[in-house]
Amino acid sequence: MNARDVLDLAWVVPALPLLGAAVLLLFGGRYLREPASGWIATLLMGGAFAWSVVTLIALWSLDSEERLHVTRMFDWIPSGSLQVSASFLVDPLAVTMILFVTGVGALIHLYAIGYMHGDERFSRFFLYLNLFAASMLILVLGGSFPVTFLGWEGVGVCSYLLISFWFERDSAAAAGKKAFVTNRVGDFGFLLAMFLVFFHLGTLEIAPALAGASVLSEGTATAIALLFFLGAVGKSAQLPLHVWLPDAMEGPTPVSALIHAATMVTAGVYLVVRTHPFFLAGDAGTVVAWVGVITAFTAATIALVHNDIKRVLAYSTISQLGYMFLAAGVGAYAAAIFHMVTHAFFKALLFLGAGSVIHGLHGEQDMRLMGGLRKYMPATAGTFIVAWLAIAGMVPLAGFWSKDEILAKAWFDGQVALWVLGAVTALLTAFYMTRQVWLVFFGEARWTHASDEATPHESPRVMTFPLVVLAGLTVFGGLLNLPFKSLEFLTKWLDPVFERTPGFEHIEADSFGVAFGLSVAAVLLGVAGIALAYRLYSRASGRDPARERLGAAAEFLEQGWRFDWLYETGIVKPGRKALDAVSRGFDLGIVDGAVNGIARALQLGGTEARRAQSGYVRRYAFAVFAGATLLIILAMTRATGA
Amino acid sequence: MTDFPLLTALIFTPAAGALAALAIPRGRDDLQRAVGMTFSVATLGLAGFLLVKFEAGTPAFQFLEHKVWMRDLGVSYTLGVDGISLFMIVLTALLFPVMLLGSASIKKNLKAYTFFLLLLEAGIIGVFTSLDLIVFFVFWEVTLVPMYFLIGGWGYERRIYAAIKFFLYTMAGSALLLVGILTLSFLYAGDHGGQLTFNFLTLAGWDGLAGSTEKLLFLAFFAGFAVKVPLFPFHTWLPDAHTEAPTAGSVVLAAVLLKMGTYGFLRFSMTLFPEATVDLAPVLLVLATIGVIYGALMATVQPDIKRLIAYSSVAHLGFVVLGLFALTTQGMAGGVFTMIAHGLNTGALFLLVGMIYERRHTRQIADLRGLWKVAPRLGGLFLVAAFASVGLPGLSGFVGEFLVLLGAFLTQRPYAVISAVGVILAAVYLLWAYQRAFTGEPEGENAEMTDLNFREMATVVPLVLLSLVLGVYPKPILERVEPSLDVTIGHLEARTDYRRPLTPEVVVEEPETGGAPPVVEEHGSHEGEGE
């Protein structure tokens, strides 16, 4: 069996979790219960990871410029000149994606066995989780845009199902719907982008379409790129479509870790990187970079003041995704993917740690009622602290390397303004994460417990084991791509994907000195953020100095710069009112009224009909029918006469 | 081919069933149900046979039957099936047994109920097989009467109003349609020494209409078809009829009766009046696009769940008309596919709403809450059907909508872009309704609602499964429909200066290695041409 035969079997990767979903759909609940259904789902995810590794080895064994493999399974939507095939595309980018999706995914599945313990819909949870993983894998392996779109919508539905998993809670049900609808706004862009691609290039298969991007006019390429980006903005919760992600925290915490931090929300970044030839052939990159950096900054300011442990992390995720778009916008695609991978490690770790805390505190999510937990939950606290230092950009943790690379690329691309905003965001990030760590794990205990049973406790092994693995990845993840010529493994691995694109060039550092200076500056900003927060919070004893100093602004920030308020009062409420009016006034009043009016004028409708006995109406209907028949016959006789 | 008149058998099996139902004495409801089931399943069997025997890859009419009926009048009993009508017949034959199975709660005058349903089935199959305009019109009218009685006899509170409105509306349209048919034949006769003909194939080959006359005739046909579809602003009968009709009535209305209108446009208007079709297409595109957006917006604010689904039909049928009048292979294929997919998905939704009504005796969304918790099967199936209706890839709705929008984008970009907004709106109205009715903590009567039983599962699950199968593998339908569409478009090109869009063809050498620079051939494949 040669390498390409193995690559032909890439479909096995999504097929395994899909099989799990099917098994749980048919047998879950009744025959398969806790914990069997959880283990089945987890094992299949582990199998998908194993097969991803096999796929990696097979691809690796090919010459670097040969590393692109397309498998066509069957014709999906053939119509005239449109030939959409169900096909999978395996290249270094896709393999990178499936590796971390299945790897992190398997760990989170494992964790969820502990976290979802005792839930009455335990099996269904794993059904959704497996279905999600299958969709995500189809998304990144898609060989034609509609196949990617299939995965894209699939993860959207699973996200909907999982956010509103505890649908008895109205807030959870509303959050699920909000997520799906907001994402649909982005899907509108994705759809139109596909239509434009087909219109100009005559194909929706990804490989030939990307190869054809360079022949498009600059305007067309920019339009296509921006439409794809609109899809990405929805899926990856960038301004102004970010509003669904904080609400999505209504879902169980493993969901927040898997879908709303590590994988699904990065699909937008993946899409931009995948379709980068359109961005390079046109002029859309600037927009991407600016939307990214503004989102990164805005979300970080909001994270400063929130008290819900998961909401802080949600805004943090939005902010970090902004960094990835910043990188993709300036053309540093490998840097975007690098940060995507390291972020998956440390943000999944943060969420799972938060979940462990919530689990230990019997459902408490308010950080004002936490504190001092490091003594009670040593494993959780220790791993959380690793992740905190990573996201704050401390050397030598993974987060430092990937964030530093993004900021350096922005600088050397000549976009100093982007660098400045990005650097300020780094400072804010270090600050809000330190605030969180202090409120949760240090200081005095602000929780009350009536009995020993209610004392915070460390989570079971099945939950702490994934934490430890992720902490290891967070520490050593930087090794994937150290910024030294021979150690840029990830960049070199991804190179074949980008280098064949006309217009692509690596952003090189002007001088080692400047690059080193920038790194030092970034670390110093991180240290400053930590120091500032430490100074404020180490002696705060239950108060919230940041909020106090921000005063009225804290309110504004907590309301997320009032985006939700704007949409609610600007669109939803007046829209509903106007539609109600149109429904009653126009549709029933004017359009329908005209019809009823005519009927009444002919004395056929209205009062008479209502008074009529049903027997009368039947006779009447037959009369009309008979009349019509008579008319036909009459007309035909006259026709013969003519 | 054997000489067995398969199409006649398809029409007369349910008709015979209707007569058999009449022959059964009152009070024998079990027998009545058995008769209904037997004849409708037999019809389904015949339709299955038709599907298997149908030869794919040819646009020709198959299973042709031709008997002169009234020679002097040029009326002949001509039946035939092509890829367009094939699936409408199969869908019809599939839905009637499902509806009869779903009608267990009908106790009142079951004899008449079965009679009307089977008569309706015969009429509908007749509509989709007729190739003579008079025969077509007779069947068209035949469907009207049983539908009227089904709404008026077994409907809800305002059924009489709804039934009359339905009847008058469609009668008004039909009257103009008839005038159009007769005029067309008279004009043909004037050109052919007084010999009338209503044979569709003969008339299609005649090219003697003056431009303005053709437009008037197109509009006469339009009146009949647009009301049926229904196109905005002729849609107001639909929410009333849908809402007040019994479940089976709503299902048959949405799934097949409305499609008679779009089928009429595609089969008759486009071929008989090519010039007018091309000239007046913008009018239909505007109305279709308004329908897509307006129907969806109205659906969002309906407090009654059946009314909500009724308005969603206005939106979906808008998509169909948009696709058809885009006059591209993809658009038209998408239109036909949506006709089928909407039948399955909306059919399933109406069945489920009917089951909710049987339990809770209300259709008001505000009265429902938390049903997913007490009835997980009902909630789950409703959600899948809703997502299919929303156009989620992997389910049937997507294939149709995607092709419609893509096909329209090629020739009618503004309409396609505006209609694509409908994709967002569909998620809004269905998921919002789902949120209010199915999520939350159920209380009171809602907390005591029972889940679906086996019989009810047996009615809905096949539709949902079929929707999934067609969403994953739509090719069997697309490849049978396409040749007929190509002929229709070819006919338009032959008669008018309309030309279908050229799609560029990217020539990339060996995408595996991606070495050579891409070349775009501007005059690439001109689909369906030559051969």
Structure write-up:
The complex is a heterodimer of chains A (642) and B (531). With 642 residues, chain A is mostly helical. Helix content of chain A is 71%, strand content 3%. Chain A is built from 27 helices and 2 strands. In chain A, a hairpin with a 2-residue loop joins strand 1 and strand 2. The termini of chain A are far apart. Chain B is mostly helical. Chain B has 20 helices and 4 strands. In chain B, the strands form 2 sheets. A two-stranded antiparallel ribbon of chain B has the order 1-2. A two-stranded antiparallel sheet of chain B has the order 3-4. In chain B, a hairpin with a 4-residue loop joins strand 1 and strand 2. In chain B, helix 1 runs antiparallel to helix 2, helix 12 packs across helix 16 and helix 15 packs parallel to helix 19. The longest helix of chain B has 33 residues.
Q: Descriptors for this entry?
A:
heterodimer, A: about 650 residues, mainly alpha, two-stranded antiparallel ribbon, about 70% helix, about 5% strand, B: about 525 residues, two-stranded antiparallel sheet, 20 helices, globular, disordered C terminus
H/E topology pattern of chain B: HHEEHHHHHHHHHHHHHHHHHHEE
Mean pLDDT of chain B: 88
Indicate the low-confidence ranges of chain A by residue numbers.
603-615, 638-642
Q: How would you state the average pLDDT of chain A, rounded?
A: 86
Q: Could you say which structural class the secondary elements and strand pairing of chain B correspond to?
A: mainly alpha
Taking pLDDT < 50 over at least 5 consecutive residues as the criterion, the unreliable ranges of chain B are 509-518, 522-531
Number of strands of chain A: 2
Structural class of chain A, please?
A: mainly alpha
Q: How many alpha or pi helices of chain A?
A: 27
Q: What fraction of residues of chain A sit in β-strands?
A: under 5%
Strand content range of chain B = under 5%
Helical percent range of chain B? over 70%
User: Order of strands across the widest beta sheet of chain B?
Assistant: 1-2
The radius of gyration of chain A is: 29 Å
Q: Mind summarizing the main beta sheet of chain B?
A: 2 strands, antiparallel
Report Rg of chain B: 23 Å
Approximate shape of chain A: globular
Quaternary state of this entry equals heterodimer
